[in-house]
Amino acid sequence: MAKSNNPLFVDSTRLHGDRIGTQIELSNVLIYDDEAVMVVVTNHLGEVDQVPMKLLEETMTYQARVWLGHQKTVAIQFVIEKNGKPILQSATMQTRAQYVISEDWVPVLV
């Protein structure tokens, strides 16, 4: 079997960068059953990723996990959608990628 086909083979010559799994948390938000909370993340390269957030009932916070360049600047915006269309959103926040980013829901006029 060739090395490239072996799922246990890790190519140590390949550069992966310093990427970390970032837990993004949003608290103080209430939505209706037909709505969804999304987080829009723009990384330091300008790549945009929209990720659905899941409710963690023990803490009543919404959470999502994304992979980001450690300590790189990122822009984060929270959006509440209904039928795939945004109905509320937060201001875009600039921060640095770290293991946990925790914010409170503060909507702005669209």
Summarize the structure in short.
The protein is an all-beta fold and 110 residues long. 0% of the residues lie in helices and 55% in strands.
Write up this protein.
- With 110 residues, the protein is an all-beta fold.
- It has a domain at 32-101: Immunoglobulin-like.
- Helix content is 0%, strand content 55%.
- It has no helices and ten strands.
- The protein has strands at residues 19-27, 35-42, 48-52, 54-56, 61-69, 73-82, 85-90, 93-96, 100-104, 107-108.
- The strands form two sheets. Strands 2, 3, 6, 7, 8 and 10 form a six-stranded antiparallel β-sheet that branches. A four-stranded mixed β-sheet has the order 4-5-1-9, with no helix packed on it.
- A hairpin with a 4-residue loop joins strand 4 and strand 5.
- It is globular, with a radius of gyration of 17 Å.
- The relative contact order is 0.27.
What is the straight-line distance between the termini? Answer: 56 Å
Taking the sheet with the most strands, its summary is:
6 strands, antiparallel
Number of helices: 0
Number of strands: 10
CATH architecture of the domain at 32-101: Sandwich
Q: Which geometry do the CA atoms define? A: globular
Please write the CATH class name of the domain at 32-101.
Answer: Mainly Beta
